[in-house]
Amino acid sequence: MGQKINPIGFRLGTTATWQSRWFADPKKYRLNLLGDIKVREILMKKLRPAGISRVEIERASNKLKILIFVSRPGVMIGRGGVGLLELKKFLLKELKIKDENTLEIAPMDVKAPDLSAYLVAQGIVDQLIRRFPAQRVMNQTVERVMRAGAKGVRVVLSGRIGGAEIARREWKAQGTMPLHTLRLNIDYAGVPALTKSGYVGVKVWINKGEGEI
User: Fold this and answer.
1) Where's the KH type-2 domain (predicted)?
2) Which of 46, 95, 169, 185 could form an SS bridge with 15, CB 3.0 to 4.6 Å?
3) pLDDT digits (tens, 9 = 90+) for 132-169
4) Measured between alpha carbons, how far is 101 from 149 in angstroms, rounded to an integer?
């Protein structure tokens, strides 16, 4: 089962927590869920230069708190906090929130970007788009992640790798990756790379060792 299911969803409540934390009655549930999806889509595109890793959302009766995990918080906050104020104004407009006191944005620093599966996958995507050799990209990525302190890493590419006529699957792994062991903190991300030849799927698993929420 651990080989098939999403490693993060499999570990909810043990070493992983929910990225949307709120309760709602059936009438508001759909609107809140759509709102969360919209917020994530906006922020993942807008804050890509800041090295955004993930977005966590907390809702109370009259409060919306957005925790944004970035590897370069200075890019997001801006000089004197100008960038953060502009981002808040933008979200207030997009989400049609009238009272600005009900929205709180909390930048969170990602101290080890090379241990974030999403940031690692995004780095691979950027290199594949620039037509770097796939094998070299995977080898360098695996070595960098292991140097950052990971217990294990696995990278899988699938699609028309290097512009090949026939799609294929290539992978590179190092260290241990026991996906059935729930006490291990395993991060996972899948990001598509749109190259000139077509899409190449990029999947990354990173074993950070034993951990708690």
Assistant:
1) 39-111
2) 185
3) 999 999 999 999 999 999 999 999 999 999 999 999 99
4) 40
Q: Which CATH architecture has domain 113-210?
A: 2-Layer Sandwich (3.30)
Q: Check pLDDT > 60 for residue 213.
A: no
- Cite the DSSP H helix spans in 53-116: 73-77, 82-94
For 110-119, what is each residue's pLDDT tens digit? Answer: 999 999 999 9
Cα–Cα distance for residue pair 205/198, rounded to 1 Å: 23
| Residue 170, both tokens | 């290539």
| Environment class of 123 (CB within 10 Å of its CB; exposed 0-12, middle 13-18, buried 19+) | buried
Q: Give the pTM.
A: 0.91
User: What whole-number distance in Å separates Cα of residue 133 and Cα of residue 66?
Assistant: 38
* Beta partners for residue 67, in sequence order: 56, 106
Distances (CA, A) of 141 to 94, 176, 208: 36, 16, 15
Class of domain 7-109: alpha beta
